[in-house]
């Protein structure tokens, strides 16, 4: 809308427009200044040879003429630039518009309406919706643009375009956001007179102007319209005569050629005949909707992969605005507890994130979610809930469409679209299309929410695994640290006696490396596999060597009490197993350490034995047994032996040892069992024999005596 016209209307509504204000307003618009000077220097007003300046020109024209020029020229310049207007003869259109404008202003003056210039503008714009329809649908509307302006034309427009020129004109004027009944006067100028008897004066004035400008020969219609404004019976003829002279004069001043406008044909409105088969028409519409919904669903899927949940919500609201002509749209999602709807923020609607609607408190939006049914909300005089009032203001509309997003038996939320009041019936006719759109949107949204939940669960699972791995590493690190501590004590004694310490230093070095490996395993998905013992790509561990390494760790320290004897029963050719020797070493250290702790009070015997090969389910295993002569385990402890349980030992990581042993045996693809009674406890371990392993030979029992 031209700024000069906006400011002019603001001054008129404030009732403070005198010649100084009018002059200041015109002076800011170079085009309008030129128009005023051109009219003032025309033969109708110019009385001397001297060229007038702007102030003199405006004084010569008078306030009424200046207002007429500003309003008329602004409207003509704006709407003559509409698409397709240059290819259409607009002479009859503008003559009818000028006639209605002049008539509206004269009627306004006769009934003492406070804003006659507003009435002039309303009359000038009362059919501007026809230009809007021509611009939007030139092929479909070209013929009916010149048709007689009556109720038949409105019916044809509704049937062919799903909107009348009165609705289109009102929608266009509403975009200007005027504090006026101007849009209403355009919307209702085809309403029957009996419906407008109690309407605002501007609405009645434009109705009278329309009837006199387009249907002056229909005496009954003119008489009904005249009664709306209380005009005398002779008033219509007087008004028409006066308007004809003023229209001709205004056209000259505005530079509009209206010659021959009355000779242009004015046919009756025409619409193609409806399809013979309404079922076929409905089927075509359903197929079209299915195709649209399918395309929308594919677009949602693509958007979900590219932009995630926020991108999907943005695509949903944008698609709804395009498909259903929503002025704006927001999404309210059900919160995790299912007690409320909470706004989902998008690029253009960040404030909505703080908006909440309790489902238990009712309201039309909440009810749509609870019932899983479409809801339509309009301002019709009845009180609305606070949430609905807020949404209407937030979206800047007068009506709401509430589309529940239902996936299966669950309602994920509601998409709320804002529309003008006159658009609501059209939305109600598209109920099935709306529901299909909602189903596609809900399906995509459910997938996005499910993926978000899955990602959160994965993160929690990884975090828990890392915490558990950390606890296990801390527990395992205690073993080599205990050995290192004991060997440092031995080292100190030997150094005092000046004895060789190379063996002890070698063990300390090995245990320090083992601590480093255990800590480093936190950053590895799987433990590193030693390559020194790999043959043909399969890791192998020499059982006898690993057992000797374990015994060497305990041999020269004070970790083994004097009342505990460790015995090893190992064949000369003890054989090899498939697996990392460090893992086997870790298993045996844990079991021997536990056995020593079980015997520390009463003393006893610990045996590490190789019982040879075992065939289990057609696979060859090597059986290792670690046993002690301790008091045995209770039934409850035995039942939960390989689980991480609360231990009677002190420290935050006790109670993990045997669960770690179990997991390490499983890592070697082996099996472990425990026998326990009053005569002691034994752990029997089956580990996969290395390929090519032969049967073990008998050998004497070797004993590690008391230290």
**Counting H and I runs of at least 4 residues, what is the number of helices?**
25
- Multimer state: single chain
CATH hierarchy class name of the largest domain: Mainly Alpha
Q: What is the radius of gyration?
A: 47 Å
Residue windows where pLDDT falls under 50 for at least 5 positions: 525-536, 650-655, 693-707
Mean pLDDT: 80
The percentage of residues in β strands lies in 5-15%
Shape: elongated
Report the strand count. 15
> Span between N and C termini?
103 Å
Number of domains: 4
The CATH topology assignment of the largest domain is Hypothetical protein af1432
Task: Supply the helix-strand structural class.
Answer: alpha+beta
The neighbouring-strand order within the major sheet is 3-2-1-6-5-4
Biggest pleated sheet: 6 strands, antiparallel
By CATH, the superfamily of the largest domain comes out as: Hypothetical protein af1432
Helix share of residues? Answer: 40-55%
Going by CATH, the architecture of the largest domain would be: Orthogonal Bundle
Structural notes for this entry:
The termini are far apart. The protein has 707 residues and is α+β, with helices and mostly antiparallel strands. Helix content is 53%, strand content 14%. Helix 5 runs parallel beside helix 7 (116-125), helix 6 (91-110) runs antiparallel to helix 7 (116-125) and helix 23 runs antiparallel to helix 25 (657-667). The protein has helices spanning 3-14, 19-27, 30-40, 54-61, 63-79, 91-110, 116-125, 128-136, 138-141, 151-161, 165-174, 182-187, 201-214, 219-228, 235-254, 278-324, 364-371, 386-395, 424-429, 431-496, 502-520, 543-555, 581-599, 635-639, 657-667; strands at residues 328-334, 340-344, 356-358, 375-378, 399-407, 410-419, 534-535, 538-542, 564-569, 576-578, 604-616, 619-628, 671-677, 680-688, 701-704. Strands 3-2-1-6-5-4 form a six-stranded antiparallel β-sheet, with helices on both faces. A six-stranded mixed β-sheet has the order 13-14-12-11-9-15, with helices on one face. Strands 7-8-10 form a three-stranded antiparallel β-sheet.
